[in-house]
Design goal:
Helices cover about 10% and strands about 50% of the residues. The radius of gyration is 15 Å and the shape is elongated. The protein is mainly β. The chain has a single domain, classed as SH3 type barrels, CATH 2.30.30. This is Ferrous iron transport protein A. Pfam families: SH3_Rv0428c. It comes from Cryobacterium adonitolivorans.
Length: about 80
């Protein structure tokens, strides 16, 4: 599966992905969880909200590992 659309159509919903799409002045990435897809769009839930991406504008897509666990807070003065 070398083509990003092949990956997006085969990936299980809930898979953590990064999807690169064309925009007016270049490219942008959406990093998050694949929530839905149909023949023309896919939806990715990112930290900043859910984004709908036009599949015709997708130039790259792949699965990414889960985010690292949060670091413990450092205590000042210890």
């Amino acid at each position: 599966m070398n083509h990003p659309l092949d990956f997006l159509t085969a990936a299980d919903l809930g898979t953590r992905v990064v999807v690169r799409t064309r925009i007016a002045d270049g490219y942008t990435d959406a990093l998050g969880y694949l929530r839905s897809r149909n023949a023309t769009h896919c939806t990715v839930e990112t930290k900043r909200g859910t984004v709908s991406l036009v599949l015709a504008e997708v130039v790259a897509a792949k699965e990414v590992p889960p985010p690292p666990p949060p670091r413990p807070r450092r205590h000042v003065g210890d």
